[in-house]
Design goal:
Oligomer: homodimer
Largest interface: A-B, 25 and 25 residues
Distance between the termini of chain A: 37 Å
Helix content of chain A: 25-40%
Strand order of the largest sheet of chain A: 6-5-1-9-10-11-12-13-14
Number of helices of chain A: 13
Number of strands of chain A: 14
């Protein structure tokens, strides 16, 4: 099998985050489900934005964040996602390409604008997200290039892809292409409410299409509808080759066949915004995994990346992650 | 004279900042003048952006920053500036209006897009700015509403307004309207290179049209082409009613007739990005000034706002400045 051109190719909803610092009162006044990602239409998004305070725009999107972190870690990375040919689409494309990521998906020139996510960050560093999918609804199987997929050691997809209808078909096509080329498929469950929307299909995916699964505690419990984390751990064990389960400040558990690792979270002085913590963990883990570094080092790398991400607003790294990880792991 | 509806009305180039963390090597490779604001055309801006790393978009513009800080301080504020009717124009308008600022300038629907400024921030927290003026070139006397100007205790303008040709006429019209209504006019010199571009006109402005002048050390030295700060101080003394001269970590000096104050800078643990320090100082000063708090308290308020601004990326406050100032001044 040819040496892969890309360590990881990510597929996701290409979104620009509109980050707004707010308080719990604003969330409850607007009936927003704290901590969740909710889908909203253009009008609802605009109405909420009009009521919100000043914002900061930073490229986002779950898999986009992961792929950006992978590039910052020094991995060869590629991304597939649909923006519109507008100013925010250019912002998204610039930010990911400027890290050296291969991003060749044709932008939409008809239909809705580039997707935006209103990320409402409260003082407890929790984020509540309202996503207008915009141009992401145009992502479909026609955007999956078999040669690109075959050129990636791991094809990584976000569970949020299951929300826009056409992206499901893109997801399954990509998974099939990857496996036909002898490559691996990875999935992040994204959000417990996303799992709730697509539980049966996600269980089938995990059992039949996914080699490396990422989920946090709430997501894996939602997937298997168990009462405890340990019950969910038993359920996922053996369902896919590797499961990396994150538990916030309680670290992460990795299960793969008979191998089990429990890795501490990296301490953080001042947690500002938890947006992108899981995305960054997945990046660190996949960086180590594709470099053959073993699960313990891979998970530690994930923890270091997640710690960097939650120490500032936004879900894109503000330092060079390769340097940061080298410094932390050697110390 | 009627009680003013607005404490301060600001007029400036309406710009969205594109903030990029970089290093000195990148500045020298691209022949960029460190610390300065340089004007570039659309092509030059796009070429530099393409070569730059990932960015964060935050509303900016010198007077826009000042007016946003004033609103955060609790002042009644208004803004005049020209965006295009595009995504970044909507971002700018949202961010300033969401603070309660009156912003009624008609956006352009023909011509260049909303202005952007590539703000290159180096590890020493210095910022180097490359501004594409875009829709700002469309700001002219037709955008100055005499009733709005007459309704503001102080009309504040940035020196950068002298760069787009039509804005000069807007500037002079606004100054005349303000004085005709018995109000005051304030000017910030903006940048030593901007002073260099327009020195003779700026000297005339300061002598004949400006009541309250803001300048940093480099700018006031450039205006009067003196060798020392003290020589420049003597030159400006008496030229206008109030001169507030900032000296970075060395604090500020305020001269007004026989009155002189020297006020310390507010200590900052970790300076991240000096963008907007002067804008924030002017906001704090004008907030105190229009509230009749005296020069010493006004300057202290300016120092507190400047310290908040340089402790993070971007030139818009990340905390409520009214609360911050109340806490600092009472402690």
């Amino acid at each position: 099998m040819a040496q892969p051109r890309f360590d990881v190719l990510g597929i996701g909803n290409a979104i620009v985050d509109v980050i707004i610092q707010t308080d719990d009162g604003f969330l409850s006044e607007n009936n927003l489900l704290k901590g969740a990602m909710s889908l909203v239409d253009a009008e609802t998004s605009a109405a909420l934005y009009d009521k919100s305070g000043p914002a900061i725009e930073i490229s986002g999107g779950s898999a986009g964040n992961t792929i950006s972190c992978l590039a910052s870690l020094g991995s060869n990375a590629a991304y597939v996602g649909k923006v519109f040919d507008d100013q925010l689409g250019h912002v998204f494309a610039h930010d990911i390409r400027s890290l050296g990521v291969h991003f060749a998906t044709t932008p939409a020139t008809e239909g809705p604008p580039t997707a935006t996510c209103l990320v409402l960050v409260t003082k407890d560093a929790e984020r509540t997200m309202q996503t207008f999918l915009g141009a992401c609804v145009g992502l479909g199987p026609q955007d999956i290039d078999e040669d690109e997929i075959a050129a990636a050691a791991v094809t990584y997809m976000e569970g949020y892809l299951w929300d826009p209808e056409e992206a499901k078909a893109a997801f399954l096509k990509a998974a099939d292409c990857a496996h036909a080329a002898g490559r691996e498929v990875s999935l992040s469950l994204s959000d417990p409410f996303c799992v709730d929307r697509h539980r049966d299909e996600f269980r089938d995916l995990v059992a039949n299409h996914v080699d490396i699964l990422f989920a946090n505690e709430d997501e894996i419990i939602s997937l298997y509808q168990t009462n405890t984390f340990d019950e969910a751990l038993q359920a996922v064990r053996g369902a896919c080759k590797v499961a990396a389960l994150t538990r916030g400040e309680n670290g992460s558990v990795i299960v793969s066949g008979d191998e089990v690792h429990s890795v501490d979270a990296e301490p953080v002085d001042n947690v500002i915004d938890t947006t992108g913590a899981g995305d960054a963990y997945a990046a660190g883990f996949l960086h180590g995994y594709t470099a053959g570094q073993g699960f313990a080092v891979s998970a530690r790398t994930g923890s270091i990346c997640a710690a960097e991400m939650i120490s500032h607003l936004g879900a894109r790294a503000q330092v060079n992650l390769k340097d940061l990880v080298a410094e932390k792991i050697s110390s």
